[in-house]
Sequence to fold (613 residues):
Amino acid sequence: MMFTRDRAIALTVTLVGLLTLAPTTSSAQPDQGAVAAAPGPGTNYATDDPFTAERTAWFRDNRFGMFIHFGAYSNLEGEYTRPDGSTCQYSGGAEWLQYLCSIPKDEYEKQAATFNPKEFDAKAIVAAAKSAGQKYIVITTKHHDGYAMWPTKQNTWNLRDHSSFDKNRDILAELKQAADAEGIKLGFYYSIWDWHDPNFTGDFPQYKERMRAQLKELIDGYDPDLMWFDGEWTVASDRPVNPWSARDGEELESYLRDLDPSMVINNRVGKRRVSDGDYGTPEQEIPEAPVDGQLWESCMTMNNTWGYSRRDNNWKSGAELTRNLLNTTSRSGNYLLNIGPDKLGRVPAPSIAALKEIGDWLDRSGQGAAIYKAGFPGVVAEPDWGVVSRSGNDLYASVYHWPGAGKPLHLTTTTTGFTVGSASVLGSGQKVTVTKAGDGYDIIPSGDDTNPAATVIKLSITPPAPTAEGTGTGLKAEIFDNDQLSGSPRATRTDPTINYAWRFGGSPAESIPSDHFGTRWTGTIEPRYSEKYVFTTVSDDTVRVWVDGRLIIDNTRPHAPTVDKGAVDLQAGKKYAIRVEHTEQTGEAHMKLLWSSPNTPQQIVPSSQLSPN
Fold:
């Protein structure tokens, strides 16, 4: 994992006394030395919409996963003793100990040779995940130290060839078997940055070939459902310099999708942008609102560190972790909660206890319905007393601050046309009264809360009935061989949706070069609900959007992949004129048009609601 968040931070390392390090990262990264992955003009890498695709349905529905940070660094347990007896400790980043403590390569290799996680119990770990209500697991197969946790054939820097571990065991195979047996999805973390492989700085193209070979081993050998990349950022350090570029990310993502088109991939495969992979990866934080333009998952620790540190006892309570899960779900995100086994492969007891506490909460009185297949409520704003998630026509109000018997909880509505029917406190027979009040509804429970983490009130709503799904086929697309949209178009056709990732080497049509082109889409758009719609674009280089003659998005300054938004009130069943203009100058090209409303989850505008006339 990163020990920075795209900004410089000070790191305190105990080395008998205290030393302060301040490495930095930057989001800017030049494209170096890579060859474009696109076979040529006319290529579109956006094969589906992750917000609605069957391929990503399990990821969207499951919401809660287990992260496992485990590797050769676990053998040090957060502390390195030098040959002279001095110690270097860093409880806040045990998996970074080699880097933070400047451990010589031969010394790090020496300690790794003694690594013997003989008590790693895949069945017990999967059982802990299942009892916690976690539906998928992501384990580190190779962290920044380059150490592979499977018997790779690409080098001997791995758990089988360079450890004291049983040569007949394969922990990834054990975890795969145990996860499959319990119906839990398995994903693999893989670090792009590599401190150990000399080719990372000596012959980067050769390093990338070895990386691809390792990834093919993982995919062919273990059939993961998800790949979780890390280490893609620019590192202001020579230990070692990281040359990974956006173009490298394009090539790798294309390679992986050829190996397994159904795989879910995070955005760190590229440069952690809205245009990379299938989903975003905020770390140690939960966004305050749904993320625009991309699925998302927040990865967080139970204490301060990802890898095991015997000195890190700053454990979060089960109640705090449960609320984190509720917060992410209410904003349509996933929660990936980390455990860090010790050098023997044992999961710390506080982690097990916290997982059980979360699982007990989810199992109690059907409260898991507030999480699984649930998401952003749309029709109500987030209250100050907790959060609200939605699953179909049910709202789940998770109350952190109980008002007391007979006192109201206010919900502010964001749209009209829906009513609240029955209301009940899960796990309690108390009466709940719902009345219209001011800008929304007052929910008045008659009794006490059910537990300290969160008490859930289920509200059955009747939303407005949508109009029938449209019969549209898409928008008229006029494609120009210049970035001024001037002259006659070189190609004219009907595009079912505006969902394009041409990247570096693709373009809208075979007759159009990969740079200096433009596209104009025109036609009509038909909403299914009468309410305010938010249109969201993901574009590179420029974009303009008109709805019913009104310019709602206007970003004509050339930009890297960027999210823009505009809102407009629309009436169900009415067809509105729409025009979208996109131009590409040089470099990458992206253009996506999404919409959302109180009763329409964020998604690419579907072809059924678009007509070319």
